[in-house]
Amino acid sequence: MFESLVAAGRCRGRHPPRVTAAASAELRELKRRNRMLEQENKILWRAAAFFAKEIARNDAPAGP
């Protein structure tokens, strides 16, 4: 979204707004948190796939 605002400002011949130190720090923290959540999501997907296989294996009928 920020990029689109900057691009719109350039079209009008304006300079992009300056980013404050607080906003920059918040953005850094949000990006870090996003990476962490993506990693956690990946782990949960793998765990779900593992347990789904285990359930399917345990539900399979035994051989003769």
Q: What characteristics describe this protein?
A:
64 residues; mainly alpha; 77% helix; 0% strand; elongated
Notes on the protein architecture:
The structure is a single chain. By secondary structure, this protein is mainly α. The chain is 77% helix and 0% strand. The chain has helices at 2-11, 21-59. The radius of gyration is 24 Å and the shape is elongated. The mean pLDDT is 86.
Q: Briefly, what is this?
A:
Helix content is 77%, strand content 0%. With 64 residues, it is an all-alpha fold.
Task: Annotate the secondary structure layout.
Blueprint: H1 2-11, H2 21-59
Whole-number mean pLDDT: 86
Indicate the structural class: mainly alpha
The count of β-strands is 0
Bin the strand percentage.
Answer: under 5%
Cα-to-Cα separation, first versus last residue: 62 Å
Strand count, sense and barrel status of the largest sheet are: none
In N-to-C order, the SSE pattern is: HH
Shape: elongated
Share in helix: over 70%
Number of domains: 1
Poorly predicted runs: none
Number of helices: 2
Radius of gyration: 24 Å
